[in-house]
Amino acid sequence: MRPATHPAYLKLELAERGLVLDPSVRIHSAPFRSSTGADAVARSLDLVLPQGVWVSAPVEERATAGSPFRLLVDGDRVVLVRRDPDGVETLRVEVRAVPQPRFYERHTTRGTPMWRVAAVHGSHLLINPAGACGFSLRGTPCRFCVEGAPATAERDAAAPVEEVLEVVRAAFDEGAAEFVYFNSGFFDAEDGGMGFLAPYVEAVRRHFDTLIATQVHPPRDNRWIDRTYAMGVDALSYNLEMFDEDALKRHCVGRARYIGRERYLEALARAAEVFPSGTVWTDLVVGLEPPQSTMRGIDALAAMAVVPVVSVFRTPEAVGPRASLDGAEVAPVLARLYRAVKERRINMGWMRDLSLGITPLEARHFAGDGARLAVAVQRLTRFRLGALAARSLARFRRRLRVRTVGESFDASHV
Ligand code: SF4
Questions:
Q1: pLDDT in tens, 302-325
Q2: Which residue among 143, 145, 250 is best mutated to probe the pocket of ligand 1, counting the most ligand atoms within 8 A of its Cβ?
Q3: Of 34, 222, 231, 268, which has the fewest CB atoms closer than 10 Å, so is most exposed?
């Protein structure tokens, strides 16, 4: 398979270039899942590519001008087509368009549209109860970000815990998601926003048999990392985005100015000591720093037992002349991603079905034949039974750990 037809490569290319919707899609009766909810203008659609690779592909006209991809409906099949600049078809592949969850059409008992409370990405239900990115509020959003600034305008008060539970229940009842993923835009709190998220985490744990991930900025005090695990979070991310220090300063002003690269790395290293293998991750945006630098980042993170996830920037016009991904540059980065994580024996089963980033498991396509056996083993975790076993194991392990973490934390009066 040529690199440009690998589902993992298609995922990156689609995430970056977006796709144009053929009129046959627009008249299709079943709405596809948009990342922005039922009432909003769809900014992107979730698709499942061959080999179960999820992608969230931008569809807004502004973001897809010049995209070689077109999505069309042919009978009962949804087909992705790519053409070169001369109009010659270079790819035609059947994909699965994910139907829009029914809960997007509903309102909570307080009258809030449910899509404002939670959005489904891949198999995760993404919830940002505070609804605002702190860096955006301070005027220092990441240059490539399409989410930060708009998010601030959508909700001005934190979602009540009961309302979040109501939406989680609605999403789970219809099978729209398997896991809960909390996000927080706090960056200047000593606890990294975990104190704010704690009641939500505790409530979800009490009411649902699911895994909970959080993506927050590093707390100032490492004891909050221990506390995060003790409170019931199963997977944790402090997103560094860029490994090179200058690139970080250029593209992620808020991260560099208010937290700093070293703190992200320190906190990730500590989290990887506390959390089970494969459950601490960070995104690295490919294409905004030299590939060698991204690969150095992959190696450094894997050496700390942190899982790197390679993601793509969505707004090329905002980041200057480096306007598109080069397949020849990206392929070795993805091969390194898989190999580095495998060599360090980090569990790859936890990071999966992410529609916004390439996981090490997805990157296996670039690592050659030797990857096949490992993949067969890792696939076990994809089945629900595997997930249930993982949950029980996670709880057992946590119970053992929480006693010590809780005692030392309470004793410290943080
Ligand atoms: S990518 Fe940057 S600007 Fe966007 S939401 Fe995250 S921290 Fe905020």
A1: 999 999 999 877 654 555 544 456
A2: 145
A3: 222
